[in-house]
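note to self: dont lose this again. the chain is below, predicted strucutre after it. 174 aa total, dont forget to put it in the shared folder this time
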Amino acid sequence: AYVWHLVHALAFVDHETRFHLFLDREPRAELLPSAENVTASIVRAPRGLWKASAFAPAAEAIGADVLHVQGLLPARTSRPVVTTLRHLRPLTAPQAYDLRTRWAWRHILPRQLGSAAAVIVPWRCLREEVVARFVLDEARVEVTPYGVETMFTPQCDTARKLVGERLGLPPTYV
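---
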């Protein structure tokens, strides 16, 4: 759901840019952004490979300007890559993960983050840990917090409408 909401928000703000979602399975219809500048396709990885390994060749095939991935991208690409990293658990609590995952996070992730055009993390403390652990330029690691908790959201329709109008946001974002 994170990527769908991200792409929907980007498409709402920027009507000129084309956004193409590469998915590894059929999405629920209500999650797909309805903007005209958003398209999606299912890509399948060869048997035995990570699902994300099919995303880089698919991006190359359509001539994408940039590839945004969540977590690991086990394939090389000539496109700039933006990586969203939500946690470091396979590195900080390896006992909870299988051998393949632990290996990938120790060997693939450092290379990917080192070459990423940008890295997006949800918290400042994770940013600090990522910068220190992977020796990254701080300017390439951006904090983009998750959405606001419900307790901070206007609870009545009138308040939502007023906040949305004041901020120029569609009703689904308030």
